[in-house]
Amino acid sequence: MVICLGIEATAHTFSVGIANSEGKILANSRDMYKPEKGGIKPSEAGEHHSSLAAGLIESALKEAKLSAKDIDIVAFSQGPGIPQCLRIGAAVARALSLKLKKPLVGVNHAVAHVEIGKLATGCIDPLVLYVSGGNTQILACIEGSYRILGETQDIALGNCLDQFARELGIPHPGGPKIEELASKGKWIELPYVVKGMDVSFSGILAEAVRLLKNGAKKEDLAFSMQETCFSMLTEVTERALAHAGKKEILLVGGVAANKRFRKMLDIMAEERSAKTFLVPIEYATDCGANIAWTGLLVWKGSGETKLQESKINRFWRADEVNVTWL
Ligand code: AMP
Ligand code: MG
Questions:
Q1: Distance 283 CA to ligand 2 centre (A)
Q2: DSSP H helix total and E strand total for the chain
Q3: Which position among 19, 60, 275, 305 has the lowest Cβ density within 10 Å, counted as fewest Cβ atoms?
Q4: Which parts of the chain are beta strand (E)?
Q5: Counting ligands in written order, which one lies closest to the CA of residue 230?
Q6: Ligand 1 atom closest to Cα of 159?
Q7: Which of 8, 157, 161, 260 to mutate to test the pocket of ligand 1 (most atoms within 8 A of CB)?
Q8: In the chain, what are the domains?
Q9: What pTM was estimated for this model as a whole?
Q10: Whose CA is nearest to atom 8 of ligand 1?
């Protein structure tokens, strides 16, 4: 049996997970940086990560009831993400790998969300809807590699909701509060922006902010933003499902916590005799367990990432990953 320690540091969260090659998650220690006001400030997030790294490695080992010498592989999130955050994770992973004299494995963060989702839910060949604070993509594995079938052309859905929430004075992350407000709102027309298989949210955000300043009710805007953005993604997901010929939909990322969104997707899936799978909350958002498990898969398929190849890749897309384990 092989044991992998995985370090996640792409954005707000620094996390250390430990997984074994039998698919068991042994630890998942984490801490999330929360800006006092406004959005994520990269340098503050980096400070947060570097100050907590050592303690989180210790607490993960403790949780797994292991000592450092039991670790066989050190994996880390190599990209995509915020450079100031990625660099801390990569530096900590390199140091640990050198100290323990164990192989280093660089992992793609988006692919890690998908692989832990498959492990945790038991789905096999899903269409993946990845909707988080920083990402909005529809992915599927086709002929042995991940393809991006649709994505946002500008900001991510979570970011759109968070930015609108900020206009209302709601602290980060605003998504859950928007969901609450939306339950009391009525429909107002907002731009519906689907371009081929892609979507765009920045115009919707700008229009919602404009309407808010002109006196529209926050509840109505929250409701209408949800209805519009979720419908757009449900439409594109349906088309992707048909195109890729998949029967499973895996929902990944923080926005998938939204009940109204899940309801829309469930209705669409049922009409297509497909099934939706929701990643359990402890693995749905960014965490080291995702990286540790995927690190094992990557290592099995491609071996280690050489030190000189371990540079962070802030724009690393899932469709650029060499999938060697499926
Ligand atoms: P992640 O980036 O995967 O950690 O997820 C965080 C994002 O999910 C943030 O943008 C949150 O606002 C968003 N989020 C969390 N819960 C909800 C919810 N109930 N409805 C909509 N968005 C949510
Ligand atoms: Mg993520």
A1: 10
A2: 10, 12
A3: 275
A4: 3-8, 13-20, 25-32, 73-79, 104-108, 127-131, 136-142, 145-151, 194-195, 198-199, 248-252, 275-278
A5: 1
A6: 10
A7: 161
A8: 3-113+284-320 (3.30.420.40), 125-282 (3.30.420.40)
A9: 0.93
A10: 254
